[in-house]
Amino acid sequence: MTGNFPPNSVGVVATQFYHSQTPLALACGRSLPNFTLAYETYGELNASKSNAILICHALSGHQHVAGYHDAADTKPGWWDLCIGPGKPIDTRRFFVVCSNNLGGCHGSSGPTQLRPDGEQLWGPDFPIVTVEDWVQAQARLADFLGIEQWAAVIGGSLGGMQALQWSMAFPARLRHAIVIASAAKLSAQNIAFNEIARQAIMSDPDFHQGRYYQHGVLPKKGLILARMLGHVTYLSDHAMRLKFGRELQQGQFNFDFNAEFAVESYLRYQGEVFSEIFDANSYLLMTKALDYFDPARAHHDQLADALACARCQFLTVSFSSDWRFAPERSREIVNALVKARKAVSYAQIEAAQGHDAFLLKVPRYLQLLTCYLNTVVTSC
Amino acid sequence: MLRADLLAIERWITPNTQVLDLGCGDGALLDYLQQHKKVQGYGLEIDAINIEHCINRGVNVIEQNLDEGLSNFSQDQFDTVIMTQALQAVKNPQQLLQEMMRIAQRGIITFPNFAYWRIRFQLLFNGRMPMSKSLPYHWYDTPNIHLCTFTDFEDLCRQLNLRVLNRRVVDNRYQRDGLSRLWPNFWGEIALYHVSR
User: Fold this and answer.
1) Which of A35, A132, B130, B148 is paired with A232 by a 20 to 30 Å CA distance?
2) What chain A residue is nearest to B48 in terms of C-alpha separation?
């Protein structure tokens, strides 16, 4: 390993690419003649190929979940906290895989990639993809990697929806599903937040119906607004009060509309950073996938019936101050699983950080994951 | 090592049934029933350490406060609901008992007997709130807010139209002796009840 990384880091890692030449039929009725998934792996697949764990990313995530991209890299993957030697998802014992969702903007087929004809970018013409489609694509990647059955599929938020979907779409292909700070469907309030984010993007004069690439511009203002809104919903009132309070950047009122309060400048900064790295069309697609996910819909709104086919064991986790994916949403999943007589454990972690808690160092949460994953190891 | 109360409860559990354990602690009972009776069990628990113990031993555990009721479970969802040493610590024992017997045909309840002779004597001669091995708290820090006697409990069962199928009276080591059979409400320290609707 090069670079001065902590000893419990997976070190330098590289994104790889899986190309599927077999058409993928999508829920929207369209199909992709071929597609690419950008993915990363950490640890070693054992001889019986029984120690593989799939990590599913959330709205703005990507395949770079742990480690560093080069020796000078200072920012590790988005869930480095949990993945590495000696961490809850211990790479000395597990082979960890994470892929960028279809429609994303980190190397998988999506709006920022070329169409199959190789001449033009997909842009707004990329099909609207769903959680179901993502799981189908991930299953192709599993085939390619020779993984018949995941030891566990793990995800938070939108990633949790994918873990849930895996249990229903491929019951025999996973032994455990860990569904964190997630929901079996979005509430009207949640869809409303997504719609405001989409409107922010689509009403940006630089959006050009999603064909901003051709115009040589980016709908940055819209994306910034969307991200600012998102950030507010990922934090709890309490967390914001602790982090920013009413602190003023310059210690006094300036009687203008610049970012005076710390919270304003934080949101602007986060929005700005995000608008540099994320694609607006991808953001629209991701929010739509969230809105559409509702496995109970095909079962007369009976989630227990939708989950009847599942065979894996479940761990569901929620956080007390999370109002974007509130504990009640996790409880709906748990109640349905109990009703369907599935093996399930559930913990509601006391945490002040809101929805963001699932990515943060919350001791009880990390301890719980460690415990649960110890039981996953014994089945490898 | 098996606790004697587990053995006593085990004989009231039908193999291959659905069991819910209210206040399941470290999951020892469910673990035992899963292994010996092949039950499918879930435990409700609120203590973080206990929840970890359950997960370590492969017992399904759900973080849920009994004081918030059992309305998330439907009628007859389980075969047996068990509640060991928790009845006296909940806010509304009557309502919880009713809820238990809504979601399952049968219930198993254990609780300390406040009419146990040592407790009666402590109150009579010391004039202080009694403390014992099964009630090891001061009046001001006890979680046991609804203590009752065997007679009180059986009155409540009658009021709720519950049938007492079996009753066992034991000491704090869960042993039976002849005296407790003779006058359970005086000599019995802990009660194990098997009830049905």
Assistant:
1) A132
2) A364
Give residues 152 to 211 of A whose Cβ lies within 8 Å of B. Answer: none
Q: How far apart are CA A176 and CA A366, in angstroms?
A: 17
Determine contact, residues B187/B168, Cβ cutoff 8 Å.
Answer: no
User: Which positions in chain B touch A338 (Cβ < 8 Å)?
Assistant: 42, 62, 73, 77
CB contact under 8 A, B48 and A339: no
Is A371 close to B61, i.e. CB distance below 8 A? no
Q: Which of B73, B74, B31, B25 is nearest to B45 (CA)?
A: B25
Chain B residues inside the 8 Å CB shell of A368:
51-52, 55
Q: What is the pLDDT of residues B85-102, one digit of tens each?
A: 899 999 999 999 999 999
Contact at CB, A345 and B56, closer than 8 angstroms: no
Q: Which residues have C-beta within 8 Å of that of residue A102, sequence separation ≥ 6?
A: A32, A35, A37, A108, A109, A110, A129, A133, A134, A137
> What's residue B1's pLDDT?
34
Q: How many CB atoms lie within 10 A of CB A34?
A: 12
pLDDT of residue B115 exceeding 80, the answer is: yes
Q: Which helix (H) or strand (E) segment is A318 a member of? A: strand A313-319
What proportions of chain B, in percent to the nearest 5, are helix, strand and coil? 35, 25, 40
Measured between alpha carbons, how far is residue A132 from residues A37, B9, B21 in Å? 15, 45, 35
pLDDT of residue B178: 67
State pTM to two decimals.
Answer: 0.95
Q: What is the C-alpha separation between A6 and B115, in angstroms, rounded?
A: 62
Unique residue bearing structure tokens 């006697």: B149
Q: Does A371 touch chain B (CB under 8 A)?
A: yes
